[in-house]
Structure formats: C-alpha cells, structure tokens
Amino acid sequence: MYCDRCGEPGTHPECTAARELEPPRYCPDCRRRMKVQVVPTGWTATCVEHGDRHG
C-alpha cells in the first residue's frame, strides 16, 4: 500500500492532513501517478491500471 499523496510506502500524518483539502495524486495500489480532474462538486482521479476514484 502506498501513500496517495506522495507515492511513498505506508501512510504519513502530514499527507493524511493535506488530503482533507486536496485529491489523491498517486494510486495507492500501484504507485502510478493518476490523472486528476477537480470540479466544484468534487474530484475524479484515474489510474490507468486500477480505474477511477471519486471524492
């Protein structure tokens, strides 16, 4: 499992706090950089291997 903010293994308190305000940047399953689209009602992050995540 990888951090979805910085891409490093595990979870980090500073990344967890920052994620309350921003969408994920890395896939937590494979560490690939995701394509992120932010709209006023939320966000969509897409991994080429694992698909979409919404928030």
Automatic annotation (TrEMBL):
Its cofactor is iron-sulfur cluster. Residues 34-53 form the Biotin synthase auxiliary protein C-terminal domain. Coiled coil: none annotated. SUPFAM superfamilies: FYVE/PHD zinc finger. InterPro entries: BsaP_C, Znf_FYVE_PHD. Keywords: Biotin biosynthesis, Iron, Metal-binding. Belongs to the BsaP family. Required for the activity of the biotin synthase BioB. This is Biotin synthase auxiliary protein. The lineage of its organism: Bacteria, Bacillati, Actinomycetota, Actinomycetes, Micromonosporales.
